[in-house]
């Protein structure tokens, strides 16, 4: 008897071009995972080039009950696009066109495979602004950003990806197509169904087009990079920044372990002995930004920082941000495995989180490196593990158990940007009530009754 996979592959091969389908083992391996550790081979890799192609693929998969795992550029950090149950890995990489940039409407219409930075550069050339800026924006795709509700440093002032999604075109699990939302900046026509798919991690439908909100491009930027002899002093300056009445575009922090790794990677003598560092970016009109930067610098210099680096204008700011963008690479250079946990705590708990991370490090004898978005409480707590050391994996699991338990005790959340995926599946029941989990499952079953879309993750 011919298998469902064989029959589906035969049907797909008859209607798709050779460029849209592959069963090659090397290709399957390439699409078996993301930046996390889990891998699982799909049986087929499909590369749709249009919504119509997606519809055909989904209908055939539904008819033969084959799992489908949608994926963007594969830059996730939680195993969200691992095809856990085999079946089809549906790569949206060839649906990569910017369909429209409308200055009058302040919208962009894009396909899901468009690289985030590509869109940003295109709209900025027209004096417009798409603020969400995940660290991997030069590589990650907008479809993946929407599926995970990606964030970034600028979220402090401008919000996350969901705040810029005005409308979506989505292919559902049965192959039907729905267009949700609109291109207007206000809309109260029925339920806000579009946002249901933002952050849904590919489990409710396949995004094939997005209408995104744009803003006027701020004409000027500045940034302060400030080093401190203690984390307490850095946190005090963060508090002083907000008390000054300013809302920075971004406000980042890094701890001593992260800075020591960055010192080694970059050769920066300035980081020698630096125990904490913050980055504060301001944007707006040039005259006001220059004045606010000078006033803020005066306020913070009273806290006796080790150094203050000031950048004025786009080029200087990008140079200063270059150091911040090295942090993740610097931690990888240590040779240790980086378990990157994108936890979020209420803003008043950021200092408590750094203190608790230090306690975890001492208790479990594992380095714990913290850096990230101090302005909104989204700190990346990186448990650094030598997986070759006996017992290290078990110790890291214990440390993460304690971390997530404490985060939830503080009324925080276990993920702010990356999603649940596979990496945080274990802690999903801890982070949600039975009623909330039941509601998620009801929505999943209503939209995907045969549970074919991205199975094996936190919803079955």
General description of the model:
The protein contains 16 helices and 18 strands. 49% of the residues are buried. It has a 7-stranded antiparallel sheet with strand order 15-12-14-13-17-18-16, sandwiched between helices. The protein has a 5-stranded antiparallel sheet with strand order 5-6-10-8-9. It has 4 domains: 90 residues, Uridine Diphospho-n-acetylenolpyruvylglucosamine Reductase, domain 2 (2-Layer Sandwich), CATH 3.30.43.10; 119 residues, 2-Layer Sandwich (Uridine Diphospho-n-acetylenolpyruvylglucosamine Reductase, domain 3); 109 residues, Alpha-Beta Plaits (2-Layer Sandwich); 93 residues, 2-Layer Sandwich (Alpha-Beta Plaits), CATH 3.30.70.2740. Helix content is 36%, strand content 21%. The chain is globular, with a radius of gyration of 23 Å. The longest helix has 18 residues. Helix 1 packs antiparallel against helix 3, helix 9 packs across helix 12 and helix 13 packs antiparallel against helix 14. The chain is an alpha+beta fold.
Task: List its salient traits.
alpha+beta, 16 helices, 460 residues, 18 strands, 21% strand, seven-stranded antiparallel sheet, Uridine Diphospho-n-acetylenolpyruvylglucosamine Reductase, domain 3, Uridine Diphospho-n-acetylenolpyruvylglucosamine Reductase, domain 2, Alpha-Beta Plaits, 36% helix, five-stranded antiparallel sheet, globular, 4 domains
């Amino acid at each position: 008897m011919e298998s469902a996979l064989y029959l589906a592959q035969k049907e797909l091969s008859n209607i798709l071009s050779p460029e849209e389908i592959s069963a090659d083992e090397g290709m399957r391996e390439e699409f078996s995972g993301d930046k996390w550790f889990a891998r699982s081979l799909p049986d087929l890799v499909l590369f749709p080039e249009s919504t119509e192609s997606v519809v055909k693929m989904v209908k055939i998969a539904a008819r033969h009950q084959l799992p489908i795992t949608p994926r963007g550029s594969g830059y996730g950090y939680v195993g969200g696009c691992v095809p856990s149950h085999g079946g089809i890995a549906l790569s949206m990489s060839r649906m990569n066109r910017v369909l429209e940039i409308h200055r009058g409407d302040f919208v962009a219409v894009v396909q899901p495979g468009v690289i985030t930075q590509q869109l940003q550069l295109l709209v900025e050339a027209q004096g417009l602004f798409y603020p969400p800026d995940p660290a991997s924006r030069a590589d990650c795709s907008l479809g993946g950003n929407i599926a995970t509700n990606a964030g970034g440093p600028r979220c402090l002032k401008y919000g996350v990806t969901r705040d810029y999604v005005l409308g979506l075109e989505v292919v559902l699990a049965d192959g039907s197509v729905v267009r949700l939302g609109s291109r207007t900046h206000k809309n109260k026509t029925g339920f806000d169904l579009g946002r249901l798919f933002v952050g849904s991690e590919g489990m409710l439908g396949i995004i094939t087009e997005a209408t995104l909100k744009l803003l006027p491009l701020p004409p000027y930027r500045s940034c302060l990079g400030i080093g401190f002899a203690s984390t307490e002093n850095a946190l005090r300056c963060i508090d002083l920044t907000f008390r000054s009445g300013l809302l920075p575009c971004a406000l980042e922090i890094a701890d001593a372990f992260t800075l020591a790794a960055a010192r080694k990677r970059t050769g920066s003598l300035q980081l020698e002995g630096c125990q904490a560092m913050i980055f504060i970016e301001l944007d707006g009109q040039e005259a006001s930004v220059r004045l606010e930067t000078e006033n803020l610098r005066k306020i913070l210099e009273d806290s006796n920082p080790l150094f203050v680096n000031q950048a004025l204008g786009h080029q200087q700011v990008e140079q200063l941000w270059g150091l911040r963008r090295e942090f993740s690479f610097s931690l990888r250079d240590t040779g240790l495995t980086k378990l990157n946990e994108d936890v979020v705590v209420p803003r008043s708990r950021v200092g408590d989180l750094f203190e608790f991370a230090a306690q975890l490090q001492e208790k479990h004898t594992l380095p714990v490196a913290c850096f990230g978005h101090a302005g909104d409480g989204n700190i990346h707590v990186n448990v650094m593990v030598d997986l070759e050391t006996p017992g290290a994996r078990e110790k890291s699991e214990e440390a993460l158990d304690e971390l997530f338990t404490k985060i939830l005790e503080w009324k925080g959340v276990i993920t702010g940007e990356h999603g649940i995926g596979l990496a945080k599946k274990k802690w999903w029941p801890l982070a949600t009530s039975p009623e909330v989990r039941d509601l998620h499952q009801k929505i999943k079953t209503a939209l995907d009754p045969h549970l074919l879309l991205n199975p094996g993750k936190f919803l079955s």
